[in-house]
Amino acid sequence: MFGLFKKKDTFAPLIVDMHCHLLPNVDDGSSSPEETVRCLKAMYTVGYRKVFLTPHFQARYPNIEDDIKKRFEVLKKAIAKSGEKNLPEVVDIAGEYRFDPSFARMPGVDKVLTLPGKTLLCEFSLHNNDYMPTDIFSDYIKMGYKLILAHPERYPYLNAHSTEVKKMHEMGIAFQVNILSLNGFYGESAKRKGFEYIEKGVSEYLGTDTHNMRYIAALLETAENKEVQRILKNYKFKNAEFIK
Fold this sequence. Notes:
There is one protein chain. By secondary structure, this protein is of the alpha/beta class. The chain has one domain (11-237): Alpha-Beta Barrel (TIM Barrel), CATH 3.20.20.140. Helices cover 33% and strands 14% of the residues. It has helices spanning 33-45, 65-82, 134-142, 163-171, 188-199, 213-222, 226-234, and strands spanning 16-17, 50-53, 56-57, 89-93, 96-98, 119-123, 146-150, 174-178, 205-207. It has a six-stranded parallel sheet with strand order 3-5-6-7-8-9. Strands 1-2-4 form a three-stranded parallel sheet, with helices on one face. Strand 1 (16-17), helix 1 (33-45) and strand 2 (50-53) form a beta-alpha-beta unit. Helix 1 (33-45) crosses helix 2 (65-82) and helix 1 runs parallel beside helix 6. The two termini are 32 Å apart.
C-alpha cells in the first residue's frame, strides 16, 4: 500500500500527533495491536515522531480510565514485541472527552486522562447544538486544566466567525483542526471551515484523528496536498509543546 506514495515528511513541522484512536478495541478506532503498528509505521513516514493516544470517553464508549491505562501498558508491550523499527514513540495515553448532556464530566468525578500540562482534549456532539457547556469549561479552567476543543470545523453549528467560538477563545480554550478535513475527508464544508479556522488564527493545533488504515490512506494522500503543505509552511502550530 505504502508504495503508492512517495516518502514525504510533510508533517515533520508538527512532530507530535496529539489526537488519534489507535488504542485497540476500546472505541471506533484500531481493531488490533497489529493495525496500530501499521498505522504508526505510516505516520512515521510522513514526519511524526511522537504520538499520544486519545480514546473516546462518551456515552457510546463509556471507557474507564483505569482500564484504559491497563490496555495502554499491554499495547506498549505488543509494540515492543513487534520488532518494528521507524515508529513514532507512543508517549502516553490521554482521552477525548465528549461534552454533551449525556456524558459531560465535572472536575473531581473521575481522574481524567490529559495531555501534558494538564491539557484536556474535548469534543461536542456533531449534531446537537442545543448545549454549549461554558459552565463546565469554566469549572475545568478553575481547576487548573487547559482545554482544547477537537475538530471545530466538523460541527455544522459553529464556524470561525461565530459568537460561540469567539467566547470560547476569549475564555482561553484552544482549537484543534483535523488534518484530514483539509483534504476533504469529512466533506467540503469541513474542509472550507478548517482552512478558515487556521487562516484566521483560531486553530492552535493540528491533529490526525487517525482511527485505522482507512484514515492512514487519507493521511498519506493529504501529505501530497499542496494547500496543506502551504499551511504548514506559513502557519505555526503548538503540537510540539507536548514533547516531554
